[in-house]
Design goal:
Elements (H helix, E strand, L loop, with lengths): L5 E5 L6 H11 L3 E3 L2 E3 L13 E3 L2 H9 L3 E8 L2 E6 H9 L3 E5 L2 H11 L3 E7 L3 H11 L4 H15 L7 E4 L3 H17 L1
Parallel strand pairs: 1-7, 1-8, 2-7, 3-4, 8-9
Antiparallel strand pairs: 3-6, 5-6
Helix pairs in contact: 1-7
The protein binds adenosine-5'-diphosphate (ADP) and guanosine-5'-monophosphate (5GP).
The site of guanosine-5'-monophosphate has 14 residues, from strand 5, strand 6 and helix 4.
Length: 189
């Protein structure tokens, strides 16, 4: 694998990773989002090749067997997500900084893999109650899916110490400004 810088975002679902990453991508034009593969169905408005590479569980397993993933996780029972090696190569070949949105285990694994090339950022909600409100008001999940996500979040929130920095996403503009400042510092190193 060639070299380049990477920014990793991890947090329980609903904390605001996607929202903060979108703002960051508007600000830094040499940043590119790493499109993960997933075996979940697209949500309304999501697009193959923009939000995720959607694949059947069988296709996903075939990529696992071929060793195509840099990392992958069964994040929710029966639903897998993973970063294809080809995706990281594609972005670095474009000369861009890779931005990852991965679950907390994925974030820890990728940080180990990339070491000082990576800045790992944990996005923290102001409270568990606010996290639940945000997940519900996003309106993308069934009750079952919300419960799965909240069930996993308590354990994930305890993992913030494994990350280089934690950004509390209370007021969005404050969280985005802080993230930009932290990323600027990292890029100067
Ligand atoms: P994640 O990618 O971590 O699952 P999202 O970025 O999808 O989370 O955010 C979850 C929901 O919360 C979305 O509806 C988003 O618009 C909203 N949201 C994100 N950040 C904030 C914030 N600081 N204040 C209020 N709502 C927010
Ligand atoms: P969602 O279904 O809400 O898009 O994502 C669910 C969770 O899967 C989020 O925590 C997200 O960060 C994580 N995720 C997305 N892509 C990957 C990936 O490639 N690897 C890992 N480990 N987690 C991922």
């Amino acid at each position: 694998m060639s070299t380049g810088k990477v920014i990793l975002f991890s947090a329980p679902s609903g904390c605001g990773k996607t929202t903060i990453i979108k703002e960051l991508l508007r600000h830094f034009d040499n940043f590119e989002f790493s499109i993960s593969a997933t075996s979940r169905m697209p949500r309304e408005g999501e697009q193959h090749g923009r939000d995720y590479y959607y694949m059947s569980p069988e296709e996903f397993k075939a990529h696992v067997a071929k060793g195509d993933f840099l990392e992958w996780e069964e994040v929710y029972e029966g639903i897998c997500y993973g970063t294809l090696k080809s995706e990281a190569d594609r972005i670095w070949n474009n000369g861009h900084v890779i931005v990852f949105d991965v679950d907390v285990n994925g974030g820890k694994n990728l940080k180990k893999y990339f070491g000082s090339q990576a800045l790992s950022i944990f996005v923290m909600p102001p409270s568990v109650e606010v996290l639940e409100q945000r997940l519900r008001s996003r309106g993308t999940e069934s009750e079952e899916s919300i419960c799965k996500r909240l069930g996993r979040s308590a354990k994930e929130l305890e993992e913030s110490r494994h990350f280089d920095v934690t950004v509390v996403n209370d007021k969005l503009s404050v969280a985005v400004d802080e993230t930009r400042r932290i990323v600027d510092e990292f890029l100067k190193k």
